[in-house]
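Structure in, sequence out. Go:
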């Protein structure tokens, strides 16, 4: 599962939009969240979608989350001297085993694979605290949604540069649930 706020803070943290897309599907059960500079988010997501489709066509199979992480990491490292200002968060299920996978990278592609949670973006410290408090292993989909929602909303409340709602995706073997969160707008 993954969650992200939908605010686009354009110029010196002035809000320009409240519906900026930051989560992109890269496969049937594979998503990438891209907090960062808006132009880089759009450019990088388009480049990744192109190469993901190319992989699927040439290999005649769907991209696994681990392979996708390697692709993301390589693309970012290639541009390390003029990087994309994005902090990718990858969430998905393996196409063969439906095993959950979450990972993130920094802006030059250093991967971090974990079994519990990853966070990125403006309210990073607040999200770590909330996730450490609320997360527990082996949660059911509804519990996981509630955990992500509470962590996201409460972390945003503690950071002046974040907020105004969010989007949570819960990825299950047989379905993907997308829910939008409403939050304070003051």
């Amino acid at each position: 599962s993954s969650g992200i706020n939908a605010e686009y803070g354009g110029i010196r943290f002035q809000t320009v939009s409240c519906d900026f897309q930051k989560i992109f599907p890269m496969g049937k059960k594979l998503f990438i969240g891209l907090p960062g500079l808006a132009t880089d988010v759009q450019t990088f997501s388009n480049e990744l979608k192109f190469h993901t489709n190319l992989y699927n066509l040439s290999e005649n199979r769907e991209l696994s989350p681990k392979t996708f992480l390697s692709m993301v990491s390589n693309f970012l490292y290639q541009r390390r001297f003029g990087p994309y200002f994005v902090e990718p968060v990858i969430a998905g299920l393996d196409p063969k085993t439906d095993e959950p996978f979450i990972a993130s990278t920094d802006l030059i592609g250093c991967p971090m694979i974990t079994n519990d949670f990853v966070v990125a973006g403006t309210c990073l410290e607040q999200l770590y605290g909330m996730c450490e408090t609320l997360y527990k292993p082996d949660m059911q989909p509804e519990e996981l949604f509630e955990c992500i929602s509470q962590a996201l909303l409460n972390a945003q409340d503690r950071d002046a540069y974040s907020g105004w709602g969010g989007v949570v995706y819960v990825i299950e073997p047989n379905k993907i649930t997308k829910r939008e969160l409403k939050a304070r707008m003051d």
